[in-house]
Amino acid sequence: MVRNLVLVIDDDPDFRELVVLSLTEWGLQCLQVSACADALPLLERERDGLRAVLCDYFMPGLSPKDCAKAIRARVDPAVRVVLVSAAVDVSERAAELGLARFLAKPFDLDQLYDAVLGSREPSA
What we know:
Blueprint: E1 5-9, H1 13-25, E2 29-33, H2 36-45, E3 50-56, H3 64-74, E4 80-85, H4 90-96, E5 101-104, H5 109-117
Parallel strand pairs: 1-2, 1-3, 3-4, 4-5
Helix pairs in contact: 2-3
InterPro entries: Bact_response_regulator, CheY-like_superfamily, Sig_transdc_resp-reg_receiver
GO biological process, one term: phosphorelay signal transduction system
Protein name: Response regulator
């Protein structure tokens, strides 16, 4: 099965919309929710097609630690789980949550692409 679905979890609707717009231009399908609790049933339902989860650090509801743990429990280990945050120490926060991937807001489209799809081929 082709893993072509990205779940974007962020309480900022403008941010979600910009990310989803970019991802769909790259041929990916997207689901978006504003809270981790809303994402959990989607993670279970869409498990087989999921390529990546982008999750903001600061959101209402579950703590970042509980959210990361709940996501990891519901997705295949091959799924890229990416912490997104405007915090200065986003890499440290990601490491504390056991997440290897992170994006520091603001980020550019190349960074988003690399986080979700992996590195682009170098231009010839």
